[in-house]
Amino acid sequence: MDKKRTLKTLDQLIQLETKAVRTYDQALETVTDSVIRAQLEDLKARHADHAEQLSSEVLKMANEMIAKHWDAITSAALREPLPDCGPKIRIVANG
To answer: 89 lies in a domain?
Structure first.
């Protein structure tokens, strides 16, 4: 699987985990039984943890992609000098 597709899939999973957390929040607004509330809190925490872990992987992959891209840019710059793009000034003497 290519990196872009992997990142898209991870993003979708993060969204699902985040929706699950919000769903547990909604359930916790109405449930009063302490045993059930504790179970809901535990499940909510698990989904929040999964979202955090997935986000960490996305950041790691993005940083690797940026570093690889930056390496390619600097490597190309070292191989080929930058063209002289400075302003051209012509001095003409009056007189």
So the answer is: no
